[in-house]
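Priority: medium. Attachment 1 of 2:
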């Protein structure tokens, strides 16, 4: 079988490696930090930084296709890799999703609703942005934010200077606060020959900026579910995308608003491991290797719950529960807010068609 190169050795890289191995592929992980979660299951690991041109070249030479588990890969590294092997999903998907301003502009140009937004590089910009967008709003760094990091809420105008200071000079975007009733996400996939498949939308609950649970089915009516899935399809086609994509959506009384997109397998898609014949990890591997992709059909109602930081204390009890499908990432060190594992609880349903 082919060799799949994966940039990033965290839990997503680990679960991608397991899926790849199950289909007879070999995996090679590229990861700067030592002893990564994916290291225990991958066939090969290169420990090197993204500035190490020789290591990047050597990595690319051993693989047939390159994918990734996170979107913040430096452009210089991508330039080196792309000259040697195909990168899937493509560079455009990375370019658009690496920067919140580019991302929101792209979504708006596609005709999808986003929060009102404005670019902020300094105090003068912020003043103009606050006039345009109003309050309450959220100031976010354009790049490198995850799990709610690099974000400051501005409820009252007096909070603006502190919010700007927290950006530490990084380019930022001011987003109007979307008064959502709940949050959902769609995990969707597109194959090399352009076939699109979507999983059912899941409903997400965040705690302190970090995903806590995903519940499927989400609380959506038929029109909303269809809209969510069509939004994902529109994004996939516009990007000529190959692989799995996550689309985070706010549900409001005036329709669905896209929050952000992730050009990769997504934490809110972990329920597919127990809910679907072909889960998001296998789906991604199938797509990037040119296989036929699964149809997204779901045969169970699922609740996925993340084990974050001190939640590891629950593992012993969860492991004794015969109805709990536990997925642990093999991380030795527990840190507050660190994702240590997750579990899925299922209720089998009659089985239904996918999108
Ligand atoms: P992730 O780990 O999902 O990549 P992130 O750091 O990129 O997180 P966002 O998804 O932008 O952060 O925001 C995290 C959460 O904060 C959202 O899921 C939502 O609950 C809330 N939030 C973000 N932006 C807005 C907004 N414009 N209006 C209302 N709530 C928001
Ligand atoms: Mg994000
Ligand atoms: Mg998010």
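Attachment 2 of 2:
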């Amino acid at each position: 079988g082919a060799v799949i190169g994966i940039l990033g050795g965290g839990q997503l890289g680990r679960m991608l490696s397991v899926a790849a191995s199950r289909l007879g592929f070999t995996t090679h992980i590229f990861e700067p930090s030592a002893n990564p979660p994916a290291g225990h299951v991958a066939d090969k690991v290169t420990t090197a930084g993204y500035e190490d041109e020789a290591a990047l070249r050597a990595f690319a030479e051993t693989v047939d296709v390159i994918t990734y588990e996170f979107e913040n890969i430096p452009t210089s590294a991508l330039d080196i890799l792309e000259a040697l092997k195909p990168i899937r999903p493509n560079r455009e998907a990375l370019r658009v999703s690496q920067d919140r301003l580019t991302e929101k502009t792209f979504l708006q140009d596609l005709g999808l609703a986003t929060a009102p937004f404005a670019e902020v590089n300094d105090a003068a910009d912020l003043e103009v942005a606050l006039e345009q967008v109003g309050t309450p709003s959220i100031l976010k760094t354009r790049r490198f934010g995850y799990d709610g990091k690099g974000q400051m809420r501005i409820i009252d105008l007096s909070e603006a200077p502190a919010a700007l200071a927290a950006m530490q000079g990084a380019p930022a975007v001011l987003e109007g606060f979307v008064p959502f009733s709940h949050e959902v996400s769609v995990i969707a996939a597109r194959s090399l020959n352009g076939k699109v498949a979507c999983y059912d939308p899941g409903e997400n609950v965040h705690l302190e900026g970090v995903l806590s649970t995903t519940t499927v089915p989400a609380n959506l009516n038929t029109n909303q579910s269809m809209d969510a899935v069509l939004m994902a399809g529109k994004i996939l086609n516009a990007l000529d995308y190959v692989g799995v994509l996550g689309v985070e959506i706010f549900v409001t009384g005036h329709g669905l608003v896209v929050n952000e997109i992730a050009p990769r397998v997504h934490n809110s898609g972990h329920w597919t491991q127990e809910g679907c014949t072909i889960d998001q990890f296998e789906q991604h591997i199938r797509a990037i290797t040119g296989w036929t992709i699964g149809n997204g059909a779901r045969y169970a109602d699922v609740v996925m719950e993340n084990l974050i930081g001190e939640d590891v204390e629950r593992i012993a009890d969860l492991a004794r529960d015969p109805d709990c499908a536990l997925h642990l990432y093999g991380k030795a060190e527990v840190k507050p807010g660190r994702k240590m594992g997750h579990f899925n609880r299922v209720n089998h349903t009659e089985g239904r068609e996918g999108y």
